[in-house]
Amino acid sequence: MKLKIFGGRTKEKEELPENIRVLIKKYAEKHHVSYLQALKELIQKGLRYDELERQYGKDVDSRELWDKRFYYLKIESGYLYYRLRLKEVIDELKTLAIRFAGVLGNLETCYKQCVNSKALEVELKRLEDLKEFIRYYLDTYVITVNRELEEKKYADDEDVIKFVEETLKKYKKYFMKE
User: Fold this and answer.
1) Whether 33 contacts 42, CB under 8 Å
2) How far apart are CA 35 and CA 28, in angstroms?
């Protein structure tokens, strides 16, 4: 069956290229419809795609837009990244606080070696305030957050990593087919 496409106001006729006809025929066979019905459906789908493209922009075929699993995979991997990054930051903060406490201890020793009693009392009071600040800092930001991370309150890191790896394997298989 040869299908002729008529131009707008001109009387020119164009024939569909062979590769397009083959695609339409495959679609018709796949969906068990006639060639003409397949052409109508494909034109309707093309127009719908054009509407979606105008609505969502050029990324209308983005997997994130249509496949929520891909979107959630990105969220889970982001969650995992920041959770692991937070552990690194806590370790660094712990090291910083311990070093700062050591410096305060050395300063206290230096001040105690000074004999001027008025200045010594003021400086020792300031050092005690700084020590209290370090204790508060360690309790609030290092120990408490570290304990919360170890509680696995929201998700077990190993389970999240396994899930992300499994999902990546599925997507790899899916993309390798195409």
Assistant:
1) no
2) 6
Give the model's pLDDT for residue 162: 79
Q: Give the Cβ contact number of residue 142 at 10 Å.
A: 20
CA–CA distance, 97 with 131 (Å, rounded to integer)? 10
Q: Give percent of the chain with pLDDT exceeding 90.
A: 9
Question: To which residue do tokens 């552990």 refer?
Answer: 87
Tens of pLDDT along 110-154? Answer: 777 776 677 777 778 888 888 888 888 888 877 887 777 777 666
Write down the residue that tokens 């087919």 correspond to.
177
Nearest to 135 by CA among 163, 168, 94: 94
Tell me the pTM. 0.41
HSE (CB half, 13 Å, CA atoms) of 6? 4
